[in-house]
Amino acid sequence: MPGLANNRHCAAGQAAVQSAAASIRAGMDQLIIAGGVNSASTSPRSRIQVDGEWVDWFPPTHPDRPDAPNLDMSITVGWNAAVKAGISREEMDAWALRSHRNAIAAIDEGRFKEEIVPIETRMGFSRSTSIRAGTPAWKSWPRSSRCIRKLRASRSRRAMPAAPTTVLPC
């Protein structure tokens, strides 16, 4: 069974599914299990108070530029996509709020009961803490000095482990 590794950081799972679909469409394969593994929250870069010397192991996805810094996806993806598509701050806020409400409703209704598997942690979380219900609180959330005016915490991705997988049949 052949395997493939790609360096797409947060988009590794999506890139794996795209490659699998292209291979099936080209007639090279008939059935592929594709997915990505991401453990950003447990990586050495995100760990605090780790013994030893710092090793910059995180390979960049592209050359670092002011309009596309290789370690700031909020600018590289979020800001550039918003500018290109002409999306306003209000439109982003409305979409983010709807997305959070839909995620909470789906979890509360048990729609993903078989797919979302709680993992015991030291902090005791059995459900995502990045999904926020109720009135949006992002107006009061602190912003980084590097944050661009259209981007804020309501739309930010958190560093969380994930390993989504799908089966693509011919």
Automatic annotation (TrEMBL):
Domain of life: Bacteria
Thiolase N-terminal domain segment(s): 6-122
InterPro entries: Thiolase-like, Thiolase_N
SUPFAM superfamilies noted in UniProt: Thiolase-like (SSF53901)
Segments forming a coiled coil: none
Pfam families: Thiolase_N
GO MF assignments: acyltransferase activity, transferring groups other than amino-acyl groups
PANTHER family: ACETYL-COA C-ACYLTRANSFERASE, BLR7806 PROTEIN
Protein name: Thiolase, N-terminal domain protein
Species per Swiss-Prot/TrEMBL record: Mycobacterium xenopi 4042
